[in-house]
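In response to a reviewer's request, we include the raw inputs and outputs for one of the modeled complexes. The two entities were modeled together in a single run.
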Amino acid sequence: MKNQISISIKYLLAITLITGLIYPLFISLISVILFPHKASGSLIEEDGIVIGSKLIGQKFETDKYFWSRPSAIDYNPAPSSGTNLAPTSERLKQIFLKRKKDFAEKNFLKNPELIPNEMLFASASGVDPHISPASAMLQVERIAKARNFDRAKKEKIIGLINSLTESPQFGVWGNSVVNILLLNLALDKMN
Amino acid sequence: MITINEIIQAIFYIIALIAIAPVLGGFIAKVLNGESNFLTPVFVVLEKTIYKFSKIDPSEEMDWKLYTYALLTFNFFGILILVLLQLFQAYLPFNPQGLPNVEITLALNTAVSFVTNTNWQSYAGETTLGYFTQMIGLTVQNFVSAATGVAVLLVLIRALKTRKGNTLGNFWVDLTRTILYILLPLSIIWAVLLVSQGVVQSFSSYKEITMLEGGKQIIPFGPAASQIAIKQIGTNGGGFFNVNSAFPFENPTPFSNFLELLAILLLPASLVFAFGNLIGAKKHAWIIFGVMLFLFVSGLTVSIISEYSTNNVFNQSGLMEGKETRFGIVNSVLWSTATTAASNGSVNAMHSSLSPLSGLITMFNMEIGEIIFGGVGCGLYGMLLFIFLTVFIAGLMVGRTPEYLGKKIESHEVKWSIVAILLPSAVILLFSAIAMKTNAGLSSLANAGPHGYSEVLYAFSSAAGNNGSAFAGLNANTAFYNLMIALGMLIGRFGVLIPVMIISGGLVKKNVAPASAGTLSTDNFLFAILLTGVIIIVGALTFFPALSFGPILEHLLMGEGLTF
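The model returned the following structure tokens for the whole complex.
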């Protein structure tokens, strides 16, 4: 019986070495060789400065950029979080109604019922990098106006949304989405 | 509205599971039986080195008492080390953020949580635990807690198979073989695939960047892929980051989502077939699998319909609150159903914001004891307890001594099965009641109305079922919840595990009687219906009153458009 105590301690040591140290380091090694960019966070650099990660959404609220989804943490994942508000929450209802009104007004929409629901509800992570292409299209008018774009350039924004729309992965998984950070970076390059 | 593409994704998931589980199950049976396999040349030296280093005699056979003692001793040291790692993490290496030592009730809660395969998280990974604690502490327990489940299942299988025996195998050998030949290879494959999708695996310190529009953002990193792989494979579910697999670095693409989803049910489903192979009852294994699949698909269907029904508060259906755009509605509830069916507990959407009936399904899945596939190993041994009960009830109906796979099921087995089923149920109901009657319990609620109560009921269902997911609005990082939930997790784990060991100790001594005309057949459709009936009746009778105050009431009030 006493024997099992000493076995437990030694075994824990051995198995920690294998699964807690060698295993993660082995995965790190393979990752660095095969997918160095992805393993280190799919970071986007401009002029040698990291301006974000392709996977981590950023906060956009001025008129000249496409807006991301509402976030419970203001896009600062320290730590990440959703709102965890209930489907019967009065607070959520008030926030929802305000978002709906604001989005419709600022984007010159006559029918607020057209707004896709992901723009009115906060994401799970607080840093959702995507919105649906439909939500992006609804913002084109506002952006074109804020940037003083003519009709031709406005058409170009629409082209940009279409070219950056990611369709379901391998034709099966997920929905059509647009990465907001990539879209806004492309938008800035248009000028 | 649900799209065709979403339906296809759900069906594809189920087909993939049905296709892979029997094949992987066959391989697992070989490993657990001690036969050599194609991985033997890779790991046999390592296996022998572990035995030698730890002074384990692999040929030593243990009776149920010694086996249980070895298991409990090992788990005790697992908890102890994990508590110490957290209490002193500020002095340990690989902590580039300089995260401080963890408070003691939180450290205890987290240690119990990972050792019991629950992986409940009162902490936020990225702001509480350093890389060293996550790797050396948590990743290790992700492996061994899953392997412990398999070991206990294996004991029960041997008990059913052995004729008038006494010993039930060697705990250390079962643990080692499960880790080296099953968990580790699968984790390596999954980890590399996940990195290929963008899951981070980096020891860099967090980066503070200036966002395009101005304003600061902290980007966290860590050796996440290696931990997430085993977190999904081993039905652990403890996220590297706070929002678990909703965080883009933990689950970046729809395909990584599919891989992680598949991993949730992969081993629990495969173990059903491994059981069938080991015990020589392949048809019976399909019946068990069928019952599990039926319960899973039923829950999924209710969840999907519920999500796509109109919420009268918002006049919207398919609410995206707490969900990620890249996954959408169906992938979110596919996950919520799978993760609570198996005792995984990882999430890719915030369960607290799900529609009330989807929330109900997640709670019901946990409350019936995590037996719809369930945790690795523990899901199936939990299901076998329900099978003992079914065989016994059916035996009473026809007035014959009930038998299962040739072993007589008598009062000893039934008594301990009932203990194992009742203990977690008692935790859920009593602990929830205590929390609802005390200030310490009520002050943590985030939502008002029936949903506030659901947060508490969910927390203790999750603890007792060793699930680990949460209605995360609840502020669980208080001394009250840390200690109550830790106790709930211990009872939920060992209150089932120890009775299973006791039952095995009794079963192994019995003779195997050949089937006669009076034996209830366990590999036909009738048995499947009986078993399903017993599970639903036991679950519904125990939890319907509790659930009606929470999600059912919320659903009805939502229909009236009421808010809280």
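As requested, we also summarize the result in words. The longest helix of chain B spans residues 525-559. Chain B touches chain A through 125 residues (CB under 8 Å).
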